[in-house]
Specification:
299 residues, mainly alpha, 2 strands, elongated
Length: 299
């Protein structure tokens, strides 16, 4: 795999006036996030074909053949045509297409995220926002689809270019109305929904996604929203691995939003010291957070 300096770059997004709408420029090399690589990608592709092939028109069946070249024959995402995102739209958004097909497709994207060229697919989707409009509905999807999406978002932290795509701030109108949405807003929603999810798998992906986001430079309002979810998560009795991931993230968010996040910790609780003694590595994360809390007034 290419190093971070060799990553494929997505062109900078701009406003109508030509102003860049990129997230904060990273000041350090890409840090690979927590990813999940237990796949039977051939079976996932077979599941996709089995569940949707009878619903596909001629062009869509051709997309399946091209996907086989990409995923099964390992010929790279470059074999997919410019219109591939229209096929994604059918899989993700046609109400009469089965949930099993969406799960298989997301799992295949998660598998493909290991390679730099996944950004080719993401780049094709910058106009229609097919993937993000689907992910925006995560709280209304079946649990198995939620789990697949959360894993996919984790795996996009495999490469610098794909992880940066998750952080884009340019907005578009939400389907059906409502507030405008952006990649970073959807990413935040996926992380929060997963961490506070209803299954152990979903929570595991959510804690990993929090840890992954903490490797990036995100804006203060995002830090506050993620921190509130972590504090709610800390009300329970999570296992050490998940505490470690989220405590590390909380420390990073405190260091970015130096006033707002520590104030949230004081107002909402619990204090990180609740987990003192859980493990030496968790204790090391708690110390600087508690030191920062001691210097921040409540209001």
């Amino acid at each position: 795999m290419a190093g971070a300096e060799e990553q494929i770059e997505i062109p900078t997004e701009v406003t109508e006036g030509g102003e860049p709408l990129m997230p904060r420029r990273e000041k350090k090399p890409h840090e690979k996030g927590i990813t999940f690589r237990e796949f039977d990608h051939v079976k996932d592709f077979e599941d996709l074909v089995k569940t949707i092939v009878q619903l596909c028109d001629g062009e869509e069946q051709e997309r399946l053949r091209e996907m086989e070249d990409w995923i099964v024959k390992n010929e790279g995402a470059w074999v997919l045509p410019e219109g591939f995102n229209s096929f994604l739209g059918s899989v993700f958004h046609k109400p009469d297409w089965p949930s099993a097909g969406r799960i298989a497709m997301v799992r295949l994207l998660s598998y493909g995220a290991e390679q730099d060229d996944i950004v080719y697919i993401l780049n094709m989707d910058r106009k229609d926002h097919t993937v993000m409009n689907y992910a925006q509905k995560i709280d209304r999807l079946p649990i198995t689809e939620q789990e697949s999406l959360a894993m996919f978002f984790c795996n996009l932290f495999e490469t610098a270019s794909a992880s940066q795509w998750l952080l884009y701030t340019s907005e578009w109108d939400a389907p059906g109305g409502g507030l405008p949405i952006s990649n970073i807003r959807v990413t935040t929603k996926v992380a929060v929904n997963a961490l506070l999810g209803d299954t152990p798998a979903l929570v595991n992906y959510g804690s990993a996604l929090m840890s992954n986001l903490a490797t990036k430079e995100v804006f203060d309002d995002v830090c506050s929203e993620l921190a509130m979810a972590i504090l709610q998560f800390f009300q329970g009795k999570p296992p050490e691995e998940q505490v470690f991931r989220c405590m590390k993230a909380l420390g990073k968010f405190c260091s970015i939003a130096k006033r707002d996040v520590p104030q949230l910790v004081k107002m909402i609780g619990p204090e990180p010291s609740k987990f003192s003694g859980m493990s030496p590595r968790v204790d090391e994360l708690i110390k600087p957070i508690m030191a920062q809390l001691a210097t921040v007034p409540m209001f």
